[in-house]
Amino acid sequence: MSYTAPIKDMLFVMKELAGLEDIATLPGFEDANLDTAQAVLEESAKLCGEVLAPLNVEGDRNPSSWKDGVVTATPGFKDAFRQFAEGGWQGVQHPVDYEGQGLPKLIATACIEMLNASNLSFALCPLLTDGAIEALLTAGSEEQKQIYVPKLISGEWTGTMNLTEPQAGSDLALVRTRAEPQGDGSFKLFGTKIFITWGEHDMAKNIAHLVLARTPDAPEGVKGISLFIVPKFLVNEDGSLGERNDVHCVSIEHKLGIKASPTAVLQFGDHGGAIGHLIGEENRGLEYMFIMMNAARFAVGMQGVGVSDRAYQKAVAYAKDRVQSRPVDGSAKQSVAIIQHPDVRRMLSTMRGLTEASRALAYVAAAHCDIAHRHPDEAKRAGHQAIYEYLVPIVKGWSTELSIDVTSLGVQVHGGMGFIEETGAAQYYRDARILPIYEGTTAIQANDLIGRKTVRDGGKVAKSLLAGVAETIGALGAQQGAAFDSMKTYLTQGHRSLSAAVDFVVTNTKGDPNAVFAGSVPYLKLAGVVLGGWQMARALLVAAEKRAEDPSFYGAKIATAQFYAEHVLPLASAFEASIVSAKGGESVLALSEDQF
Amino acid sequence: MSYTAPIKDMLFVMKELAGLEDIATLPGFEDANLDTAQAVLEESAKLCGEVLAPLNVEGDRNPSSWKDGVVTATPGFKDAFRQFAEGGWQGVQHPVDYEGQGLPKLIATACIEMLNASNLSFALCPLLTDGAIEALLTAGSEEQKQIYVPKLISGEWTGTMNLTEPQAGSDLALVRTRAEPQGDGSFKLFGTKIFITWGEHDMAKNIAHLVLARTPDAPEGVKGISLFIVPKFLVNEDGSLGERNDVHCVSIEHKLGIKASPTAVLQFGDHGGAIGHLIGEENRGLEYMFIMMNAARFAVGMQGVGVSDRAYQKAVAYAKDRVQSRPVDGSAKQSVAIIQHPDVRRMLSTMRGLTEASRALAYVAAAHCDIAHRHPDEAKRAGHQAIYEYLVPIVKGWSTELSIDVTSLGVQVHGGMGFIEETGAAQYYRDARILPIYEGTTAIQANDLIGRKTVRDGGKVAKSLLAGVAETIGALGAQQGAAFDSMKTYLTQGHRSLSAAVDFVVTNTKGDPNAVFAGSVPYLKLAGVVLGGWQMARALLVAAEKRAEDPSFYGAKIATAQFYAEHVLPLASAFEASIVSAKGGESVLALSEDQF
User: Fold this and answer.
1) N or C: which end of chain A has fewer CB within 10 A?
2) Could you report the predicted ipTM of this complex, rounded to two decimals?
């Protein structure tokens, strides 16, 4: 059940694909060179491999539990969280001014991948706290920042996001929680929030709930939602803890996976009102929440990468160990380890290729985010921000959708043993299933990709990325060999398919929205497959050049790129057919409701 | 959590695609006309919908349990099994001579689909008993048949298949269980069998274990395996029960799904030897077991169809009920039921299309099996048998692989609620995960499809099926409209891809087996996608002709066929690329073991 962080691949991606050395030239990131990255990753790998990974199965067998409003985390989690906090891991990417480490998101992303690979349930607590920190830094008052952010970064307190209500899931316009002004600047909140991850627990002294609610005269719909901070324990002016606030966990859910992570139903104001404070301006809550959500969505994408890698590592270990059947080519008379069988190879290579591609795409996105924040040139910043924002729904949607396939293949590699819970492969399959749902389902990501990220700028960002793909195809053209041949062929086809889809989306969204949205998720997946393939092609070019330096590592990069070209990229034309050629989604919408 | 058997679609497939009326002209099947089929299906639907479907969730929450060697089935199962047995449902397809109903496999297949849709765990017990009956009818002595088969058909006793041992899963050459002759014609068996489905339980008075074992002088490998019948209670000459035999359940597994179905570890001979009798001839056990396995594999394919349909029905019900978000086309100012949203439509249509296609292909296969058994012309029988045998691994492998996608989409349609176990959607996702593993993993099915079913006859059967596809494409050519246009385009492409793959397999398996087996599962899936699409095309032709008779039903058939053409069939060219164009599987096999 162990986990070994793939530091070598992470550093390869950071250096060769995401441009860490360029990031380290940005103001404030001067120390963030490859040596720093390596040192940070090695420390992170220790904590994740030694402390968090072994607790993962414990969390599945002995989930966090609820009793009389009190939630007790899985045994071992509280101590692990203390080690996590003391190591400063919550603050990797947060500002030095608030006692963070101020490192680039690119480096933090690798740490976040490790955290999730080792223990998805555990990682969710810091993930939500990161979101709360982001929101406070963006929209909080100076006082709020001073009180909350250092405590959140130190791990003394944790944060949550309270969006969902029973009638308001994907559709936040339906939020009904009320916030009544008390005349002293504070509000009293009343309502029920569900699906609140780590909404109650015993790992930290206080919990800062960020809560969407409506003030009395707020307009209907999403433009009448405000954001409040509601601490579990009220906070005195000196930052010490006061009375217990009127927010209570009335139950936690019994879930398919990530069982150690308590999913709380929170009741606000059943005993007189939960005291909260407005963050930023009234009625701009959704806007602020989107800041948290973008960070959280990217991080959930990393959960997909992390659990995929974990499942891959486990499947490889089993395949090397399990002896069964003679080779199909008759090369041995005896049964061999199943990793020798072509179909097991195909499964492992699929798992590996998808994991590497989704990792590379996410790290590249993180680097764009870093440049967007730190580059001295405003136009540059805006350009990189736009690319980052285009990539976020893809990192979230594609990496998590493929984590289901990868963890499912992980079970399959184990054969009958995979279905036995003691083996552990099934946990990843169960855990992964939430990833394409929370922080916005894949359809919600795809709507975002179409509406805000593709149509709004007339496909400009999408086409700039496609130009990058074309440039890489050009570079491939100068090279010889089977890997390059396959990559050229299928990346060219992928480029054509994604271009056609972008044109289709840009041209038709306004006039025939149903036709476009019928292919929304296929468009998102197509973008993931092609842009992920682009990173594999870039890796191939680097690996071919450096092969002699480290034949095993770079040789594996080349083979994996070739595999991805031949087994993943061909899907692009199938997606294109479904999106573009399918006559405006006619068949998707043909049935009346009662024909289903 | 209810289940409504799709009798109308089942009868449509039986009549229009599988040729029930022709089956009813075969000797012995004279009564098996459409009226009979309808009456049988309606009765079966009652039992499945009213008795078995409600027990499905109970089995998940309260699995069968083990204590001191005794396994107690989930509460309610014993009584349900009594009703199942009394209704004569175990005997639907078995010979009248042994108190079966002697109906065609085609009709039995619909009953088996219902049984599995309503309760996968429950259905496994009759599924294994069917296998035991088949094996006894084929290879048992007259005495064995007389003693065992009527009791198995009546449900007084049940049957099991004992193949797997800890070191022998896919690789039966490694079976080590010993059978020592006692001089009186009986044997004493010693060994451990694992993963024995319904290997011990309290629903019937006796259990007939069919066990693979080796006699003392048997040759090594698969040619030294014999088949034995080892009853839980010894059977006296008059058929009454004697002493408890020395076969004991030492534990049952803690599994990801199908929790009501006890998966037993059986210990043979720990107290002096388990008394068994040889079935058929020594050392021919694997051959006989293959008879059971072919029947069981087909039935597991039906498990895939069944659980897919169940997940589809549940997702549709939720999507009609759950109100969330306004339509993307602005056609309503209020939030609408999520079934109105294009992406939910796409998910439901994918679930529906895959379920209908896999159902149709399986029923068509069952009809070939019926003709193979009953046609007066020997050459005809052989021809249909060959087609049936080609289709079995596809029905097994493809229907079960797609059931994972379908049940996963079922969770996704439910959003966050899908991840909560109380909702029930997650159970199908967990239950389905075993289907591509047991009774031979998808890779094992694909090896069978390549070796025995495609290469051995030089692709003759595959090409005869492709000729059928071409004929249907011709018939589509005469028709107008978007559904026909799409189906023509993508079925033609699919035909081309499958033809290319068959040629590749036939040409290269001998000379470059690794290259072919690297694409074995893609070949199986390609065959499923295209041959399933063929059935959808045939359904489209019928539906277009009859549309006026029942516009809602046939209109839905047309739309579903179009959807399948546009969203599923395009995958064919991606599979072709992976199988044929990928330069002999080079990238699959490029990495050395330690590069993983």
Assistant:
1) N
2) 0.97
